[in-house]
Amino acid sequence: MKKLSVLFAAIIMVVSVSMAKAQKFATVDVMGVLNAMPEKKKADADIKTFLDTKQSEIKKKADAGQAKLKLYTEEAPKKTADENKAREGELQKLQEEIGQMQEKAAKDLEAKKDVVFGPIEKKLNDAIEKVAKANGYEFIMDANSPAFVYRSGADATAAVKKELGIN
């Protein structure tokens, strides 16, 4: 009985190894390819410009709020309690507006990224699929994925870059 289970385990191991060898694996440096794509470089610049504009608007509003706070703090002893209370309300409203601006900017940034990077991701995925089919790869995995401790097999990075017409 023991010999039969050892023989069965050996057969399973041989079949598993044979099946694994029959599959073709490759890796691709996804970030390397993306960073070499001119479209990605332009998209990164567009996103940076968009972000800088939003941050500038928020900073302008915050600076105005700081100036009002300083002025109100200096004038507080000379004003009545009702005036100071009204000023506190005004400052609180300004602070809420700044918070809303920050939230809207974050949402707008995510929407902009989706619009700008969507076509780039599709182009890359189409190129990877074309390279995989042309070379008979059954799997292409990101070469930099932290999920892999060991990797081997062909590297499709050069073929994907060639397909995209980049170096």
Secondary-structure element string:
HEHHHEEH
Task: Describe the global form.
Answer: rod-shaped
Q: Based on DSSP secondary structure assignment, what is the total number of beta strands?
A: 3
Strand content: 5-15%
C-alpha-based Rg, rounded = 29 Å
| Fraction of residues in helix | over 70%
Strand order in the sheet with the most strands = 2-1-3
| Derived structural class | mainly alpha
Summarize the main sheet: 3 strands, parallel
Q: Give the overall average pLDDT.
A: 83
Q: Helix tally?
A: 5
Cα distance, first to last residue? 61 Å
Task: List unreliable stretches of 5+ residues.
Answer: 6-10, 13-19, 147-151
Can you give keywords for this protein?
single chain; 167 residues; mainly alpha; 3-stranded parallel beta sheet; 5 helices
Describe this structure in words.
- The protein has 167 residues and is mainly α.
- 77% of the residues lie in helices and 6% in strands.
- The protein is built from five helices and three strands.
- The chain has a three-stranded parallel β-sheet with strand order 2-1-3, with helices on one face.
- The chain starts with a helix and ends with a helix.
